[in-house]
Amino acid sequence: MVGASGSGHQSIITCPSSILARQHYNEFKKYAKALGIPIFFFTGDMGKREKNRVKKAALSKENAIFVGTRSLNNLVYSKLGLLIVDEEQKEGVGSKDALLKKSQLLPHQILMSATPIPRTLASTVFSNFEALRINAKPAGRKPIITELIRDK
Questions:
Q1: How many secondary structure helices (H) and strands (E) does the chain include?
Q2: What's the start-to-end Cα distance of the chain, in Å?
Q3: Angle 28-34-40 (CA atoms, 0-180°, nearest 5)?
Q4: Minimal CA–CA distance to 11: which of 101, 109, 91?
Q5: Which InterPro entries match (predicted)?
Q6: Is the Cα torsion angle 6, 14, 71, 23 positive or negative in sign?
Q7: DSSP assignment of 48-76, as one string?
Q8: Rounded CA gap, 18 and 22, in Å?
Q9: How high is the pLDDT of residue 117?
Q10: Between 3.40.50.300, 1.10.8.60, 3.40.50.720, 3.30.70.60, what CATH number should domain 2-126 receive?
Q11: What is residue 90's predicted lDDT score, i.e. its pLDDT?
């Protein structure tokens, strides 16, 4: 995203839920602000005034980062250079394709999935996609505890 911004292009990260989008936004915002990169959050449940502000930014801010839900499909981008789809299996092919059609350029794509769908796997074989596997857990990650809690 920093590389795309540095070359004057926009980046999008789209997520299947507002909660996940907000988590990404809050994390990316720290770095974007420190580097002077404009960053915007966009979901369908935002107010009209805020939606209009982000829509204008998508048309004019050539090096901005946009984080949100599938609602990002409703924006028109001036110079999209990077598209990141988190949880691709939930977003669907149509959502990604809709974003690609809104771009004048063919942006670089990163498709993330904890459970790859057959289409994604086929793309790594028959297309020029590359599959990467992350084997290490994030530093400081707390252990997952699964418990059965009975009603009293």
A1: 6, 5
A2: 50
A3: 45
A4: 109
A5: DEAD/DEAH_box_helicase_dom, Helicase_ATP-bd, P-loop_NTPase, RecG/Mfd
A6: negative
A7: HHHHHHHHHHHHH-TT-EEEESGGGGGS-
A8: 6
A9: 67
A10: 3.40.50.300
A11: 53
Domain boundaries, the chain: 2-126
Structure tokens at 88: 């691709």
Instruction: Give the single-character DSSP code of 102.
Output: T
Per-residue pLDDT tens digits for 88-122: 655 555 666 777 776 777 888 777 777 766 766 77
Other CB atoms within 10 Å distance of the CB of residue 62: 16
Residue type at 128?
Answer: N
Q: How far is CA 99 from CA 39, 46, 125, 151, in A?
A: 18, 20, 23, 46
pLDDT in tens, 29-55: 999 999 999 999 999 899 999 999 999
Degrees (nearest 5) of the Cα angle 17, 134, 69? Answer: 15
